[in-house]
UniProtKB/TrEMBL annotation:
It holds the Pfam family FMN_red. InterPro entries: Flavoprotein-like_sf, FMN_Rdtase-like_dom, ISF_SsuE-like. It comes from the Bacteria. Gene3D superfamilies: 3.40.50.360. It comes from Acetivibrio straminisolvens JCM 21531. One of its GO terms (molecular function) is oxidoreductase activity. Keywords: Flavoprotein, FMN. This is Iron-sulfur flavoprotein. Residues 12-161 form the NADPH-dependent FMN reductase-like domain.
C-alpha cells in the first residue's frame, strides 16, 4: 500500500462558491480547511461563480444532439474542472430561502446542458455541501444541492451533521464563531478524505 505522503497521492478538491463577495464568509471557509490536519494531503482549486459568465438556459434542447450546451459562456470550463477533480465542494449562499441566483443558474446549465447529455460524467466522484447564511433555510438549500449531487450519481460520505454555518450577517468573519459548523466541516472533510484515500489504496 502506498504512503499518503507521496505527492501524486494528494486529493484534488474543487470549491465552487456562489457568493457575490470575495474575502467574505464563504471564502473564509478555505482558512478553516487550510488549517486542518489534512492540509498537506490536498490540493485546492476555487471557482467563484461571480467571476464567470453564466447565461440562462434557453431550453432549446440542442444539447441533446450536440452532447453539450451550445451557449457561449464559461460553464463548459467549470465542467472540465469538475471532471478533473477528486472531490467537489459546493458552497452556496442563501438568498430568499433558496440558493442564490447565480448558483441556481449554474446548477441548471451544468446539469441539463452538460452532465445529462454526457451520461453523468461525475459518477462516483465525491462531493461535499457547505451552506452559509443567517438564520433560515440552511437545510432547504443543503437538500437542494444534495439532490442535485445524487442526480449526477455522485457520492456523499456520511459524517454526522452537515457543515451549515449560521451567522448574523456581519461581513466578514461570522463563520469563525460558529464552532459547531467548524467541527462539522472538519469531520466532513476527514471522512470524505478517508473514503477517497481508502478507495485509492493509500494509507
Amino acid at each position: 500500500m502506498k504512503s499518503i505522503n507521496e505527492p501524486q497521492d494528494k486529493a484534488n478538491l474543487l470549491f465552487i462558491f456562489g457568493s457575490h463577495r470575495r474575502n467574505g464568509n464563504s471564502e473564509k471557509i478555505l482558512d478553516i480547511v487550510k488549517t486542518s490536519p489534512y492540509c498537506d494531503r490536498i490540493n485546492i482549486k476555487s471557482i467563484f461563480l461571480l467571476e464567470k459568465k453564466i447565461l440562462y438556459c434557453k431550453s432549446c434542447y440542442k444539447c441533446n444532439s450536440m452532447n453539450e450546451c451550445v451557449l457561449d459562456d464559461d460553464v463548459k470550463e467549470v465542467i472540465e474542472d469538475m471532471k478533473a477533480s477528486d472531490i467537489i465542494v459546493y458552497v452556496p449562499v442563501i438568498y430568499a430561502f433558496s440558493s442564490n441566483s447565480i448558483f441556481q443558474t449554474f446548477l441548471e446549465r451544468a446539469g441539463f446542458g452538460f452532465l445529462r447529455p454526457q451520461g453523468r460524467p461525475l459518477r462516483d466522484k465525491l462531493a461535499m455541501v457547505i451552506v452559509i447564511g443567517r438564520r433560515y433555510a440552511h437545510t432547504t438549500v443543503a437538500t437542494q444541492i444534495l439532490l442535485n449531487i445524487l442526480l449526477n450519481e455522485m457520492i456523499v460520505v456520511g459524517s454526522g451533521f452537515l457543515p451549515l454555518f449560521y451567522g448574523l450577517g456581519k461581513f466578514p468573519g461570522d463563520v469563525n464563531f460558529d464552532t459547531e459548523g467548524i467541527e462539522a466541516l472538519k469531520q466532513n472533510l476527514k471522512r470524505t478524505l478517508e473514503w477517497h484515500f481508502a478507495k485509492k489504496g493509500v494509507k
